[in-house]
Amino acid sequence: MLKDVPPALLTYVVVALVAVAAFPLAPDGVRPLLYFLIGSSSLLPAAFALRRREGPVRLIFAGLAVINAGGLWAAAQLAFTGNRNQASLAFIVAGHLLLLVAALWIVLRRGRGDVGGILDAVVMAVGLASLLWAVLLPPRPDTVSAGTRAGMLVLVLCLAGMLGALFRVERAARESLLALRAFLVVLPLALVGIVSLTFAATDDPLLRPGWIDALFLAGYVVAGAGVADPSMVRLLRPGPAPVDRLGPRRLAFLGGALALNPVVAGVQQLAGRPVDAVLLALGTAVVVPLVMVRIGRLAAQRSRAEAALAHEATHDPLTGLANRKRFLAVLDAELAAGSAPLIFFCDLNGFKAVNDKLGHLAGDELLRLVADRLSACVRTSDTLARYGGDEFVVLCPATDGEGLVPRIEAAFETPFVVAGETADVGLSIGAVRAEPGADAVTVLRRADAAMYAAKAADRGQRVRTYAA
C-alpha cells in the first residue's frame, strides 16, 4: 500500500514522526514552540488537498489550523509572559471538534448505504469504551475534577463511536484506502492521549507529560498526511451497501448494549466501589438513543420488506398492475357484497407479430406501454389488472364503467413505438355486466367469450368491443 504514497508525502511523514518521537526529550521551555512547529507542519500536506475542495477536506484543514493557533498562543504566552494560561484550550477543543465533524461527514458520505451496520459498530465501540473506562479509570477524588472527568468521558465516547463507525466503513470497503487507514490511526492516538490525561492528575492540559503531547502530535501528522493521500478522493465517494439483516444475535447485542451501563453500576455497588455516576448518566444518554434509532430502522426495514412481499404477491412484476390473484379477490368481494360491476376483458391484437419480429424484450416493452395507456383510461374506483400474457381486465363499479371504452379507443389511436419501430396493435374488448351473487369464474368466462366475439368481428377497427 505504501508504494502508492507520493514520495514527498512519505518523506514528510517519516521526518515528522521522528520529530514527534524526540518531542518528550526536549526541555520544558522549548516544548510549546516545538509543539507548534511540529503540529503546524501537518498543515502543509493538508493545504495541497484543499484543491479538491471537498467539505471534509476543508474541515480537516480548518481543524488542524485552529489547533495550531492554540499551540501558537501557548508558545507566545510562555515566551513573553513566562506563564501558561487556559486561553489556548478553546482553540484546541474547537479544532478537535472540527476534526470530529469531518470524520462524521466522511462516515455519512461513505457509509450512506450501510447505516445499520455503522450504528451497530458505534454502539459496540461506545459500550466497549464505557466498560474499559469503568474498569481502568474508577472515580477518585484525588485526580481531575468531576467536570473535567465528564468532559473527558464525552470525548472518549465520541471518539470511540467514531472509531467504530470508521472501522465498519473500512470493513465494508472493497478497495484499499490509505486515507481511511490513516484516520483509523488518528482516533486511537487521540483516545489514548485523552485517557492518559486522567493519570496526569491535572485540570491543566498544558502541564501534562511530554509523551501525552507526542500522542496528539502524531495524530495531527497522520491526519494531515491522510487527507493529502490520493485515496482521499475515493474515500469521499459512497461505499457499498451490505445486506442489513435482523436476527436473534443482533437483538441480543442491542439489548446487552442497553443494559451494560446499569449492570456496570450495579457491579460497582456490590463490590463496594464508588458508583461512577458520570459514566452511568452519560453512557446511558449516548447508548439508549443509538439503540432506539437502530431498532426503529430495523422495524422500518422489516415493514418495508413485508410491504414489498405483499405487493409482489398481488402485482404483476412486468407492468406493475394488479395480477390475476388480486383481481379475483376484488371481484369476489364485489360479488359477495351484492354488487353488479362491469367487467372488461381485453386482449391485444397483433402482439405475436411484434414478438416474432422484434423479440421478447420489445414485446415486454409493448406490454408496459399498453399498461400505461390503460392506466390513464381507468378511474381511481376501477381495478385494472394484467390477467396473463397479453390479456388485461378492468373492473368498474356498477355506475362508473360506461365511458371506459371511448377513452380506450382514443388512447389507442396513436400507434405504439417499440425498439424504434411502429407497432400497430389493436385491442379486442369483451364487456359483461356481472350478476349479483354470481361467482368470479363464471363472470370471467362470460367476459372471455365476449372478447373472442369482438376479436372475430370487423377487423377494420383498432379497438373492437363486444358486450354480452
From TrEMBL:
Keywords: Membrane, Transmembrane, Transmembrane helix. The keyword Membrane applies. It comes from the Bacteria. SMART domains: GGDEF. Residues 339-468 form the GGDEF domain. It holds the Pfam family GGDEF. PROSITE patterns: GGDEF. SUPFAM superfamilies: Nucleotide cyclase. The chain crosses the membrane at residues 7-26, 32-50, 57-76, 88-108, 115-136, 148-167, 179-199, 211-230, 251-271, 277-295. This is GGDEF domain-containing protein. It comes from Paractinoplanes pyxinae.
